[in-house]
Backbone:
């Protein structure tokens, strides 16, 4: 599990980027948010915890939830 901060979030498009504590940027899509976040979405500066999954486009954040 990784932690990081929401760097940007385009609510109208349903995606954004998380800056991981490892200084890597991770793409995040609304479909990869925890169910408790899907209705409200993300906001810049929010601390989150997430898993990383690799696909053809690179690494992305999945199972994104508010960090405790």
Residues:
């Amino acid at each position: 599990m990784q932690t990081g901060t929401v760097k940007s979030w385009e609510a109208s498009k349903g995606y954004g980027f998380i800056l991981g504590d490892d200084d890597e940027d991770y793409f995040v899509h609304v479909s990869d948010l925890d169910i408790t976040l899907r209705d409200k979405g993300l906001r810049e500066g929010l601390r989150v915890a997430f898993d990383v999954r690799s696909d053809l486009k690179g690494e992305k954040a999945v199972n994104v939830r508010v960090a405790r």
